[in-house]
Amino acid sequence: MKNWISLLTVLFCATIFAQQTTFKFDFGGSRVENGFIPINSTSKFDKKIGYGFMDISGLKSVDNGGNALTGDFVTSDKPFYFSVVIPEGNYDIKLNLGDTKGSSETTVRVENRRLMLNDVKTQRGEIVEKLITVHVKDSIIRNQDGTQIGIVKLKPRERKYLHWDNLLTIEFNDKAPKVCSVIIQPNKAPKTIYLTGDSTVVDAQYEPWASWGQMLPYFFVPNEVVIANYAESGETLKAFEDRHRIDKIWNKIKKGDYLFIQFGHNDQKAGNSTKSGYRKRLKEWISKAKELGATPVLVTSMNRRVFDRNNKIVNTLDDFPDAMREIAKEDNVDLIDLNALSKTLFEAMGPDKAKKAFVYYPANSYPNQPTALADDTHFNTYGAFELAKCVVKSIVDQNLPLKKYISKKYKSFDPNKPDAVEDFHWPKSIYMESLKPDGN
User: How far apart are CA 183 and CA 95, in angstroms?
Assistant: First the structure.
């Protein structure tokens, strides 16, 4: 009888925890701040309790004494991942980083390598509090009452992604990541920027692939704005509808939110023309977003790394960028001309240096990669970061309403003068794959 009572108690607690949306975790040794959940180097993730590290190998708990919350921390000499079972929604996450008896250096990403904090350094004895705002999603489509009315048709490879797994996963990376505490609280107030698009926008899980969409959160003020990336590799406008990805957004987007739309690469690949449904669907999405009180923003597809004999970028996207420019004018919506900005950026790099922005790597650079990677469409992390800067530059230069939410992390950017690849900071995640994303 006692065993049954104990089992029921565990199940009840697990159910309550699964519904919980606010958490306070104290990372470190055995001393725990009042009201916090203790987390140490042996706290392996367990679905029954709803939180923990995905892999505890290499983790180390350090207790320097003093303050119970900031006097101890968890660290590792390799990237480590902390996951929490949490409902879909937007969350503010407060992080205490640092070491009361040493220095630290931490980069923070969430879910599929979505960049939040980059190279946060603390001096000896310094503890810093950082805030990030994160969108957590699942594949269930719900109406305004929360009742399930459908589901997003995920591709088989998506089922392995960290952003469809009903968990919030935080990646701690860099030379000396030291985490003292993590506080998670729901935030229903921020403007949500929904991203739709293909492999050049998606939150790519695996090194060396990347997109501008997963770099964008880094440039926005937390608490005020959150990026919700619903893009997926290989998608056309029609496929995005057929798989109910846009239905998921229509049932979540609210007044004051934004809908960024970037399609073209795969619409072209599918043999479509701008007259075979592309214009019609774009206009329908624009109308629907406005009807729901959201602001649609069109983003022209960036160029591929294709140069002519004069080292000028060749347009390989037919009239898709022009069609989007025309629709922006016709429907009076904002346009981020990433096609034009990327042309400037790549021509400034030149044919050879531009390879540093794309997935160009010799054989055996990544697991199960017997041959060289030479991809003129998909970007590595450096290229994705530069393109994200182009997107932000367009927002700032056009004085769009979102400009006031751009973080001070963004400095003025000139695509005629790309950042040196040697200066780009990106400690690699543990997830690596040489398989090319869907799309072209």
Answer: 7
CB-CB neighbours of 22 under 10 Å: 10
Question: What is the edge-to-edge ordering of all strands in the sheet holding 80-85?
Answer: 51-53, 80-85, 167-176, 104-110, 114-122
Identity of the residue numbered 257:
D
Q: Are the C-beta atoms of residues 382 and 357 closer than 8 Å to each other?
A: yes
Nearest Cα to 111, choosing from 23, 213, 6, 249?
213
Looking at the chain, the whole-number percentage of residues with pLDDT higher than 90 is 88
Nearest to 134 by CA among 187, 65, 87, 176: 187
219 vs 332: CA distance, rounded Å = 26
Q: What is the pLDDT of residues 274-312, one digit of tens each?
A: 777 899 999 999 999 999 999 999 999 999 999 999 999
Q: How far apart are the first and last CA of the chain?
A: 61
Please tell me the distance from the alpha carbon of residue 84 to that of residue 111, in angstroms, as a whole number: 11
Q: Return the H-helix or E-strand segment holding 151.
A: strand 148-151
8 Å CB contact between 126 and 98:
yes
Distance CA 380, CA 274 (A): 29
H helix or E strand, kind and range, residue 90: strand 89-98
Per-chain mean pLDDT for the chain: 93
CA dihedral 198, 204, 207, 209 (to 10 degrees): 10
Per-residue pLDDT at 405 exceeds 70: yes
DSSP state of 46: B
Beta strands 89-98 and 127-136, pairing class: antiparallel
- For the chain, give me the number of helices (H) and strands (E)? 9, 21
> What is the pTM (predicted TM-score) of this model?
0.94
Query: Which of 152, 150, 136, 147 lies closest to 245 in space, CA to CA?
Result: 152
Of residues 429, 428, 398, 395, the one with CA closest to residue 193:
395
